[in-house]
Design goal:
The structure holds 2 protein chains of 2 kinds. Chain A is an alpha+beta fold. Chain A is built from 7 helices and 18 strands. The chains are: A alpha+beta, B mainly alpha.
Chain lengths: ~350, ~220
Amino acid sequence: MDKDGRPPHSDAHGLPDELSDLAESEDARQDYAALWRLLRRADTATDAAFSVDAAWDDLADGLDAPAESPESTDDIGPAEPPPARRSSDRPPRPSARARARRSWTRRLGVAAAVVLCVALGAVLWWRQPVTVQTAAGEQATVTLPDGSTAELNGATTLTYARGFSSLPGLDAAARQVTLRGEAFFSVQPAARPFRVETSNAAVEVLGTTFNVRARLQGETPVTDVALRSGRVRFITRAAADRVASGVILDEAGQQSRLAGQDAAPTAPAPLDPKYLAAWREGGFAIRNAALPTILHELEIQFGAAIRLGVPAAQTETMTLHYGRTVRLEDILRDIAVIQGLRYQQMNDGYALVP
Amino acid sequence: MPAFMAEGSVERTDPDERTDPDEPDDVVSTSPHPEASLGRLRQRLGRSDRDAFEQVFRRLSKRVFRFVRGMVSSDAVAYDITQDTFAKLWAARETLSEVDSLRGYIFQMARHRVYNTLRDERVRRSNEELLQPGDFDTAPPAPDDALDAEQLRDLLDRWISDLPPRQREALTLRRIDGLSHEAIADLMNISPHTVNNHIVRAMERLRERLRTHRPDLLT
């Protein structure tokens, strides 16, 4: 700590004491010190970019200063400059009443500015999209401004405009949401279409219930849509405005997949309804999926890390269905039995090993 | 967030500091003009003493530039703001006797200009970037391991400009010679404890970026 109540010691290159004290570990302290040295080195570049002499010359030219100031060469400075110079250099002070009037108009100006800022802030706030995010292993239900709901599975981000319904003076925003991850939508019927966008696809509906899952397989965005009721149009995002493109799902239990940016959705195929959004009941369902994909889905839904201790090529695709609340350990035990593996609990999750 | 941020961090107060608000600057600074205190210069400035103004400029302009540059990430903009700050100081020279601390006043003026600039920039850019935040997580490829100061600054700038403004400001001010963190707390109008939090969070974030992208620089 400091001696004599002096300001904390700030060595030109060393880490300031208080940062050193606040580092949570010796590791962090060393990193802070290294980082501080880097910042100091970067500062020399900043200092080099500013020449005090040149800047002063620049500035001095523009000052409304007296041509010469003989008295100021004296370093101590005179007690009072000569009156003649003062009057030429400085405008007479306004009267007290003039100053009061000015301060009153200024206050009015400030008040107007504040009102303007608040109004502007309200508009900006209104136009700011709302984002709802779940962590892996977490689920949430979002009620959208039009009364539609979205149930989010784990590791999912849903973004939507605040103004689905209109505000005086502001147009109603489109009923549009952006999805990363997986969600089950129950859409309120209305004249305006409801639209779900993923990174590569869009789903347009009028009033219906359906599940959308947007994932990355390696670098490729893949979006799956499964219909529970009603009717949706499933299109690539690029072609989102062309009415004719894409496929229409209009029978309960149909599903379609769109992989990549420029592809077309697969033809609607029937899906046993029990596989549709089993996650909503706390269950888990997946069809004909590779083991790494299954483990990844389990990680998202249960929020635990799962390591595969054998090459993916030595494992087989699987179909799993758990209709209601199920424990991760039970699923892993079943997988282990089917694949001829064992599962182990690690301190940071699970591992499937030979 | 690390647990130490939650409660009771190191509080430092300097009971003797406040006799003349401008003195602490001289105590810790490496100023080449130890002969005239800022308090004295302020009085002379009030009498339109151009020489005193030059001394103030020579003593503080580089630090003001460093602060502004840390906030705006452009040499040209930082230069303009710095010059404008001192031009306004000259224009306001007659009212300086009401000012608590000359140094604090100058930094405060610079700060207002910085925030105005950042706000204008944000408004200008918000329409294009509303839904697509910049990709600050990638480091530019480095030609070789030994970065010169300029390359290093470009590298750090990207990550620093991604910090929340208050964190960036606290960190930038702390990097200026001669500004104690009590002075920073005064300037930002927050407690020294909060200053610490801002700085540590900023350091933690930069550290994380470095560990991810340039672990070689941390050794």
